[in-house]
Design brief:
Elements (H helix, E strand, L loop, with lengths): L1 E2 L2 H21 L6 E7 L3 H17 L2 E7 L5 H12 L6 E4 L9 H7 L11 H8 L8 H12 L8 E5 L6 H9 L8 E5 L6 H6 L3 E4 L17 E4 L3 E4 L7 E4 L4 H5 L4 E2 L7 H17 L6
Parallel strand pairs: 1-11, 2-3, 2-4, 5-6, 5-7, 7-8, 8-11
Antiparallel strand pairs: 9-10
Helix pairs in contact: 1-10, 6-7, 6-10
Length: 294
């Protein structure tokens, strides 16, 4: 069994990005600039934005965080999005989700200029991804593809089963791995809570991607020997063995599934570190005008 080390791969990619940023600066170009809008004080969102700021610093990016109280109105937030859309100094920005209930997430996402939508959530970027055009791929699916690529895991002709049909992970990764590309060319089954005989479907998979947000859902009896297992889930549970009294676990019952898997991602330290790196990669592409020429 080979452990897919997201921390190691993300560090390698950060080094590659830092070198490229250095080259841009030496040519007299400015550093890429990533901004984030955060509304309210959600702990998970605060942590994520903090990691983003730190990662920007590591690779030499400029970074801006715009913080608002959760009393902000939808029209005020849309005005902020419009301001960033029209700011030539900002290459890409993200709207940290979730948003307060009185604000339509979809309306805000659609207000973001697709050329600056480095989260890859805008319908234009999603649509371009579906038909195989250059686009910003959302961070988690892009991170999964990067791990598969760097560990040289064969996907062509393989049976891939994705558990979970979210717009952020399940649907995009199922499309990416079915594309005529490398990684890709897989036969993909997208499963969800209404799938009948889920155990039998998963048992045929060469690669299982668990992204349903249910702690330790995937057990050893569901997985065939030699399968590649990618765990996207992350749940905080109480623990008597840690200092904090909490620990993070994934959608996979790691210890028992690891004995059957050929490759497996741990939680934490697997897919997680790749999401921020994917965001940095998209911002670099935005700064260079790679997807949408300037």
């Amino acid at each position: 069994m080979i452990l897919i080390d997201g921390n190691k791969i993300s560090s390698e990619i950060k080094e590659e990005i830092a070198i490229e940023v250095q080259q841009m600066k030496s040519r007299g170009e400015r550093a890429p600039h990533l901004a984030a809008i955060i509304v309210g004080h959600d702990g998970g969102s605060e942590t994520y934005v903090g990691h983003k700021e730190k990662s920007c610093k590591q690779v030499g990016f400029d970074s801006t965080v715009l913080r608002f109280e959760d009393t902000i109105t939808e029209s005020e937030l849309l005005a902020t999005v419009n301001k960033l859309n029209n700011d030539p100094a900002i290459d890409g920005f993200i709207m940290q989700l979730p948003l307060p209930k009185h604000i339509s997430e979809q309306k805000v996402i659609e207000a973001i200029d697709p050329r600056k939508d480095v989260d890859g959530f805008h319908p234009i970027n999603l649509g371009r991804m579906v038909i195989g055009l250059p686009c910003y791929v959302s961070a988690t699916p892009a991170g999964i593809v990067e791990l598969i690529k760097r560990y040289k895991i064969e996907t062509s002709g393989k049976n891939v089963v994705v558990i979970g049909r979210s717009n952020i992970v399940g649907k995009p990764i199922s499309i990416l791995l079915a594309q005529k590309s490398n990684p890709g060319d897989a036969t993909v089954t997208l499963t969800h809570s209404r799938t009948k005989n889920l155990k039998e479907v998963v048992a045929n998979a060469d690669i299982v991607i668990a992204a349903l947000g249910q702690a330790e859902f995937l057990t050893a009896d569901m997985v065939k020997k030699g399968a590649v297992v990618i765990d996207v889930g992350i749940t905080r549970v109480k623990s008597e063995t840690t200092k904090s009294g909490w620990k993070l676990i994934g959608d996979v019952k790691f210890n028992e599934v690891a004995e059957k898997a050929s490759y497996i991602t741990p939680v934490p330290g697997g897919v997680g570190p790749m999401t921020i790196v994917s965001l940095l990669q998209n911002t670099l592409k935005a700064a260079k005008g790679e997807i949408y020429p300037k």
